[in-house]
Amino acid sequence: MSSNSKDEKDKDRDREGRGSHAGPGSRGGHGSYGKDSNEDKSGHGTSNRGFASMDEDKQREIASKGGYAAHEKGTAHEFNSEEAREAGHKGGEAVSQDREHMAEIGRKGGEAVSQDRGHMADIGRKGGETVSQDREHMSEIGKKGDGSG
Questions:
Q1: Is 4 helix (H, G, I), strand (E, B) or coil?
Q2: At what angle do helices 99-114 and 117-132 cross, to 10 degrees?
Q3: What is the DSSP-derived secondary structure letter of residue 53?
């Protein structure tokens, strides 16, 4: 085969659209390259296949199975105490942005604590001890209580 013949074959390949970047079956620069036949005009896929098209419950079920399998295999990520602390901190920051939710937590906690009469008595005693250390405050209370005030 002469070198001239080899050059001719290279030219033929280029004309067929199979140069160095295009392989067999390539569009060779023709048509709507990069467009998926399953895309509508907005660019969103219309296919009813694949993980992304499943409802959230089905996705969660499949992802859960993957988590269990990874733990059984021993390849699942195990959080160390520092990673767990950071994750908890991030979660706490996100939750604490919801003021209504935080108020509800506080109300429930207050209701639960106030049911424990012994605990409430201890709080009262401690508060009373602290306040009674403030002589000026106690003097004011005494003046109001003697009826002369």
A1: helix
A2: 100
A3: G
